[in-house]
Amino acid sequence: MKKLFLIFISIVIILINSCNKFDSINGRIEGKTTNASEIVKISDVKVWVKKDTIIATTFSDSVGFYNFIEMPVGKYQIWAWKDPFDTTVYMDVNVVEGNTTIRNIKLFLIGK
């Protein structure tokens, strides 16, 4: 009876672990925010991800780095803004299962 119980518990654990694999079909988006010449990294840039609506928002850190983790596979728009720069939009940013999509963002001064 004890062996049968251990076999049952082992099967349950295997089934639970195999189901979790199907739940983690995600990727990442990350990059840096810079000025138009890509020389100056810009901190505190508001960066957001949209599909039909805004899905996630973050701000670039002190060295201009931003990231979104656990993004479901698919195509997104990446938007970025910080005063005195124009809003920047990148269309069709593709997230692939288990991969990191690098999307560096260039910000242009308003009117330039």
Number of domains: 1
CATH architecture: Sandwich
The total beta strand count reads 8
- Name of the CATH first level: Mainly Beta
Q: What composes the largest sheet?
A: 4 strands, mixed
- The H-and-E topology, N to C, reads as HEEEEEEEE
- Which range does the strand content fall in? over 45%
What's the mean pLDDT score? 87
Radius of gyration: 20 Å
Overall shape: elongated
Q: Percent helix among the residues?
A: 10-25%
Descriptive report:
The structure is a single chain. The chain contains one helix and eight strands; from the N terminus they run H-E-E-E-E-E-E-E-E. It has one domain: Immunoglobulin-like (Sandwich), CATH 2.60.40. Residues 19-23 have low confidence and may be disordered. The strands form two sheets. Strands 1, 4, 7 and 8 form a four-stranded mixed beta sheet that branches. A four-stranded antiparallel beta sheet has the order 3-2-5-6, with no helix packed on it. The N and C termini lie far apart (78 Å). By secondary structure, it is of the alpha/beta class. The chain is 20% helix and 46% strand.
Task: List the SSEs and their pairings.
Blueprint: H1 2-23, E1 26-35, E2 46-50, E3 54-59, E4 65-72, E5 74-81, E6 88-95, E7 100-102, E8 105-107
Parallel strand pairs: 1-7, 1-8
Antiparallel strand pairs: 1-4, 2-3, 2-5, 5-6
